[in-house]
Amino acid sequence: MISEALLVIGLLVLVFLPGLCFVALFRLIDYVADDELIARVENGEFRSGSPMRRTAGNRTERAPNRSPPAGEEVVCRACDAENWDHADYCWNCLTELR
């Protein structure tokens, strides 16, 4: 009698626990998607420290308003692209600058 009850309880746990975990995970993802910080990042309120923006198709596109100030640039010997003076690698061809 007790072993049959434990078997039924175990079977119910195995049947319903994955569904409950899925619902809990789905609710967590929905909660995180409505986070204020994520919304602020998507709206562009935060900027990365990177001076350049690369896209998948075009590696030579500069990020808007992020060009290095005059006198604070290093020209790459391989592709003649202007880089920030503290950059270790060229943003265009990824050649080591120093």
Write a concise synopsis of the structure shown.
The protein has 98 residues and is mainly alpha-helical.
Strand-helix topology:
Elements: H1 2-33, H2 36-42, E1 73-75, E2 82-84
Antiparallel strand pairs: 1-2
Task: Give a verbal description of the structure.
There is one protein chain. The protein is mainly alpha-helical. It is 40% helix and 6% strand. The protein is built from two helices and two strands; from the N terminus they run ααββ. It has a two-stranded antiparallel sheet with strand order 1-2. A hairpin with a 6-residue loop joins strand 1 and strand 2. The longest helix has 32 residues. The relative contact order is 0.08.
Question: What is the beta-strand fraction?
Answer: 5-15%
What characteristic shape results from the CA principal axes? elongated
Going across the biggest sheet, name each strand in turn.
Answer: 1-2
Kindly provide the radius of gyration, computed on alpha-carbon positions and rounded to a whole number of angstroms: 27 Å
The overall strand count is: 2
Characteristic terms for this protein:
mainly alpha, 98 residues, 2 strands, two-stranded antiparallel ribbon, 40% helix
